[in-house]
Structure formats: C-alpha cells, structure tokens
Design brief:
Strand content: under 5%
Distance between the termini: 57 Å
Mean pLDDT: 92
CATH topology of the largest domain: MetI-like fold
Largest sheet: none
Low-confidence stretches: none
Number of domains: 2
Length: 220
C-alpha cells in the first residue's frame, strides 16, 4: 500500500484549521486550572477539617477517574441532573480546567513543601504577613521549582484535548477523523494530526526550556 500524498496535502489546511480549537482548550483550561490548583494546594497544606478533606477528595476524584468519563458526565449527564445544557465548548473547558487543577495542586503542594521552612519563619520574624510571605518568598521559588512539571502538565493537557472530538468539537483530531471517514484512508490524516501535535509539543518544550534557563540565570 502506497502513501497517498494527494490526500495528505489536500487535507493539510482542513486539519490545520482545528489548531485554534486545540489551543483554545489548552490555554483556557490551564488559565482556569492553575489558580484553582494553587488554592487547592494551599488548602491541603494550611487548612484543617472540611476544607482539607474537600481539597484531598477533589484531587482524588479527578486524578482517579478517566478524563473521558469526566467529559461525558459534564456534557451528557449535566442536562439530566440539573436541566442545564452546556455547549460542547463549555463542557470541555469546565472538564479540562477542573481536571488540570487537581494535578496542578499536587505539583504546587510538593513545590511549596520543598522550600526550607526557615525562610518563612525568618520573614515572619521580620514582620511580613502570611500573605506577603506567600507572594514574595514562597510563590516565586515554587514557580521556579515546579516549572518543568507545569510544562509537562501543559503538554499532557494539549494532547488530552483530542478527547473533545468525541463530543463534536472540530479540533485537530476531529478533522483528521473526518478526512479518514470520507476518504477511507486512515494513515495519512492521522499522521498529519500526529505531526501537528508533535510540532506544538516541540514548541512548548522549547519555550519552556528557554524560560527555565532565563529564570535560573536571574536566580544566580
């Protein structure tokens, strides 16, 4: 069986148009999930009782169940349970944001715990409030320590957005599958999708490495 260059080239632009959908999910989900993850991390480290158990339970549920199941629950089950009909985009962003927050919370929790407690104790002796300690001492160091893990989370999130094709969002994967169905050829469109995902991951990894080197240079 020969590789069909005509199908590969003719479908290139069509599949590429799904890039905006894929990036929208990745960027919005991480933008929403990051602050929520930070809050959850703080609750795990600084709170007791209900809030602590809520943060732990939240993380356990979203890390312990498949993302595809979570997406199905928000998109298909929400109307049944609440009468609220979410669009595919709304359900997707909500699912990916909540899921990402669970992973980000663990990343930040370990990052915060890796900081020497003597630094925070010294800052409080100098008169800084807990809020000031977090803003000026804990968060900057935590971001620097957890940057590689956060980049991995962004890359994982980017690849996982392919799941939105199952609810009809015309992302890269949906468009590649549509070409495959119409042409009865699967290798060419799926190879094209793989190429787009790989290039995106490569760009993110390269930018992340650049930022990491800059942060290390500034730190020294």
């Amino acid at each position: 069986m020969l590789f069909n260059f005509d199908v590969f080239l003719s479908s290139f632009e069509f599949v590429l148009q799904g890039l905006s959908v894929t990036l929208s999910y990745t960027i919005l989900a991480l933008t929403c999930g990051l602050p929520l993850g930070v809050v959850l991390a703080i609750l795990k480290l600084r709170s007791k009782g209900f809030l602590f158990h809520f943060a732990q339970g939240y993380t356990s549920i979203f890390r312990g169940t498949p993302l595809l199941v979570q997406l199905g629950l928000f998109y298909f089950a929400t109307p049944q349970l609440t009468g609220i009909h979410l669009s595919a985009f709304q359900a997707g962003i909500l699912t990916f944001s909540l899921n990402s927050a669970a992973y980000v919370s663990e990343i930040f929790r370990s990052g915060i715990q890796s900081i020497d407690k003597s630094q925070t104790e010294s800052a409080q002796v100098l008169g800084l409030t807990k809020f000031q300690v977090y803003i000026h001492i804990i968060f900057p160091q935590t971001i620097r320590k957890t940057l590689p893990s956060l980049l991995n989370e962004m890359i994982d999130l980017l690849k996982e957005t392919a799941l939105v094709s199952t609810i009809g969002e015309m992302d890269i994967m949906f468009r590649a599958r549509q070409v495959a169905t119409e042409k009865f050829l699967y290798f060419e469109p799926y190879l094209l999708a793989a190429l787009f995902y790989y290039v995106l991951v490569f760009i993110i990894s390269s930018l992340g490495s650049f930022v990491e080197r800059k942060m290390q240079y500034v730190a020294h």
